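[User] Could I get a sequence and structure tokens?

[Assistant]
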Amino acid sequence: MSTISKQIVVIAGITVNVCSYIPLEERGRPLAVLFLLHGRHGSTKEVERVVNDVLVHAQSQGPSERDLVVVTFDHRNHGTRVVNRIANDDWTAHNERHALDMYAIQMGTASDVSFLIDFLPPYLFPSGEREVHEWMLSGISLGGHSTWIVLRDEPRVNIGVPIIGCPEYLSLMGPRAQASGLTVTPPHFPASFIDYVKTHDPSSAEVSSDDPSQNPFIGKHILVLSGADDQLVPWSASKKFVDALQVGNGTKKVVVEERAGHECTPRMVQTLASFVWKHGMKRAQSTTSSF
């Protein structure tokens, strides 16, 4: 088995980890790139196991038309990008702006994904050594929230796997606010903020429509992974949206794992890896091809 390599690239102050089995500097086959986003209070270090498992799975599947690359970077105000740790805390830790902070971070990270789609190819392949033929995204918890946003807003990402994430921010945060003795009203939920969420949240899209001009999820391949016993991001907050979601000729697969809480389980990682392989890698027709 080949050794996984990690190339570190700094793009406009963002430290980007580019992980693969193949030397990227050499000319070769097209790439399928999977962004993998970590959770709140975490960093890229917490998803290293997932990166490794996904790459090992891809390597074990045999020849494909594309090589797989997994990319990680820290969310805004996380890991190497921390500016104010309190902004990552919730109301119980006396962060009165918790609702704004968490949404701003996940929206900002979603924007970072689009930014890196623009700039990773010229940074990695200044002489056109490789081409990216598929952009994919998965995220855990906070990263799962951002994954839903990217799936709505970024047409270049056609394969997405939100893990213990939620596409309906107010459905998630309303009960959390109530549990903290708050209401979804100012000052904790400013009116201008509520208006923004209602306009930009994934749940604001016409997901039951089969018209791609109204439903941005049409044609996308989406795997939803949640825990049946998740108390922090309960499946009930996502269920209505996911049940109504239409993807046309795309794929919608939902796995709510029994006895799983707010965690990314080994089974979830294996299901992620298989989904990425099936929809992003394209098995080679000839069994004589090799990595």
Notes: The chain has one domain: 5-281.
